[in-house]
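Q: Okay, next protein. This is Receptor L-domain domain-containing protein from Arion vulgaris. I've checked the sequence twice, so it should be correct. Can you predict the 3D structure?
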Amino acid sequence: YTNCTYVVGNLEIVYLDDPDIAYDMSFLSQIKEVSGYVLIAANYVDYIPLTSLQIIRGSNPFIHEKTGMKVSLLVALNYEKG
């Protein structure tokens, strides 16, 4: 996924929770735009480098199962290693 700056659809970063794995997510630093929603949930990592992300269009919003709420960005239940 090198040089990927535009995500068509949704970006989901979920369940990266094995403390023995050093997840390489450096490719995320180049993403500038997502046409759908961004979901970052239930991760056990030091850093999620979405440093270039500028636009989340939300053309296809995430719908929360229990509340029915529609959102373009959901960040929940993430933990820092160490």
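A: Here is a summary of the prediction. The mean pLDDT is 94. Residues 12 and 39 are 5 Å apart (CA to CA).
Q: Noted. On to the next one.
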